């Protein structure tokens, strides 16, 4: 497995290159940006037979919008239409060149056929998926950053490696876009909403019948979700996480990849279908042991009924953990032998 390569594939440098000479940023949203960020009119979703607002279907969220706002865009929450178009053109040029021969000494990555990291910025033209705090940056505590650095560099044990690489889970940020497999199938039955995630084929079964959370002594990798409806919006609160995972496991999450979470983690997700082909998705992440304040990510989900999920075969082909650890042990043996010879 090569999850190290699941990045936004050059998007961040592209953003800086295209926009570093853009007009000086202005405070707040322009009227045009506000219009882009707000549905033009209220849309009434259809209902399931048992009366739930119907969110069912196949949805995707691949995008070239970076996870956090680049420093070159500080103070600029939204792109203009020309800026967004320029960024998308540059991303297209990059894809066209992606299969060029690698530089000498560079083993390269998958060819572009295997990636599905999107071709467009999100419809709102926001400059980052993180929308709160207003600067588009995740408020990580220094101690959590130090733990992240250890996670990303340690080869002492499989326990310090990504739970995604270990084929356990994508983690709490399971709906953050990655380099491929950005599909989610929503199915509703009386009393439940089920979200099938293409990556690691996880299925979240979310009760919406008012039952309480499990006892706090019960801790799980994916937490304990409970949903309820606020009008046409599905609100999902997930608690009861263990403290073994990472907030984000794919490299498209940039500096957040490898940041651990604690048992205090609490997620609140909101799914609102704003038209026939779009779900407005937001998630607020709160973990006072890791972050200085709660923070929010917003990603529109686009309906794509032609999309077909295939099995995500992880354990069957995963030799990476054994190879990484055995390689590290060999390097240690060679270093010890070299030290004896001195």
Folded structure, characterized:
The structure is a single chain. This protein has helices spanning 11-19, 31-37, 81-97, 142-153, 320-341, and strands spanning 57-60, 130-132, 183-189, 192-197, 203-207, 224-230, 233-239, 266-275, 278-286, 295-303. Strands 1, 2, 3, 4, 5, 6, 7, 8, 9 and 10 form a ten-stranded antiparallel β-sheet that branches. It has five helices and ten strands; from the N terminus they run H-H-E-H-E-H-E-E-E-E-E-E-E-E-H. The longest helix has 22 residues, at 320-341. It has 342 residues and is α+β, with helices and mostly antiparallel strands. Mean pLDDT is 86; it is low at 1-37.
Overview in brief:
With 342 residues, this protein is α+β, with helices and mostly antiparallel strands. The protein is 20% helix and 20% strand. The chain is built from 5 helices and 10 strands, in the order H-H-E-H-E-H-E-E-E-E-E-E-E-E-H.
List key phrases describing it.
20% strand, 342 residues, ten-stranded antiparallel β-sheet, 5 helices
The CA-CA distance between the termini, in Å, is 38 Å
- Tell me the helix content: 10-25%
Biggest sheet overview? 10 strands, antiparallel
Radius of gyration: 21 Å
């Amino acid at each position: 497995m090569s999850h190290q390569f699941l990045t936004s594939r050059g998007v961040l440098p592209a953003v800086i290159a295209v926009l570093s000479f853009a007009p000086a940023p202005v405070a707040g949203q322009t009227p045009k940006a506000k219009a882009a960020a707000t549905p033009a009119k209220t849309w009434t979703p259809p209902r399931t037979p048992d009366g739930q607002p119907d969110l069912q279907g196949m949805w995707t969220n691949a995008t070239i919008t970076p996870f956090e706002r680049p420093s070159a865009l500080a103070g600029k929450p939204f792109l203009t239409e020309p800026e967004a178009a320029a960024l998308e053109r540059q991303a297209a040029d990059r894809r066209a060149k992606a299969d060029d021969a690698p530089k000498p000494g560079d083993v390269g990555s998958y060819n572009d056929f295997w990636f599905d990291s999107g071709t467009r910025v999100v419809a709102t033209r926001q400059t980052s998926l993180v929308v709160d705090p207003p600067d588009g940056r995740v408020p990580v505590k220094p101690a959590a950053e130090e733990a992240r650095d250890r996670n990303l560099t340690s080869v002492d044990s499989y326990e310090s490696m990504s739970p995604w690489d270990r084929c356990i889970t994508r983690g709490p940020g399971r709906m953050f876009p990655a380099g491929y497999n950005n599909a989610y199938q929503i199915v509703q039955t009386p009393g439940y909403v089920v979200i099938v995630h293409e990556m690691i084929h996880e299925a979240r079964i979310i009760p919406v019948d008012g039952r309480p959370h499990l006892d706090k002594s019960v801790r799980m990798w994916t937490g304990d979700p409970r949903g309820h409806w606020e009008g046409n919006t599905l609100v999902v609160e997930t608690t009861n996480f263990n403290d073994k995972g990472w907030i984000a496991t794919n490299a498209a999450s940039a500096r957040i990849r490898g940041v651990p979470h604690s048992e205090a983690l609490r997620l609140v997700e909101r799914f609102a279908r704003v038209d026939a082909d779009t779900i407005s998705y937001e998630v607020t992440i709160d973990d006072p042991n890791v972050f200085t304040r709660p923070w929010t990510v917003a990603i529109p989900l686009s309906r794509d009924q032609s999309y077909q999920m295939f099995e995500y075969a992880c354990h069957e082909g995963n030799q990476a953990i054994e190879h990484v650890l055995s390689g590290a042990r060999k390097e240690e043996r060679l270093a010890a032998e070299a030290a004896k010879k001195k």
